[in-house]
Amino acid sequence: MKEIAYFPGCTHLSTAKHFEMSSSEVFRALGYELVEKFSWVCCGTVHGLSTDNLMQNLAAVRNLTRAEASGVRELVTNCAMCYNTLKQANEMVRRDSEALKNINEFMDEEPDYSGGVEILHSLQLLLKIGVEEIERRVVKPLDSLRVAPYYGCLLLRPRDIAIDNPERPRIMEEILRATGAEIIHDSRLRYCCGSYHTVDRKEIVVSRISEIISAARRKGADIIAVACPLCEFNLDKRQKYLSSERIPVLYFTQLLALAFGNEDSCLFEKHFVDPIPLLKERGVLDG
Question: For the whole model, what pTM was predicted?
Answer without folding.
Answer: 0.94
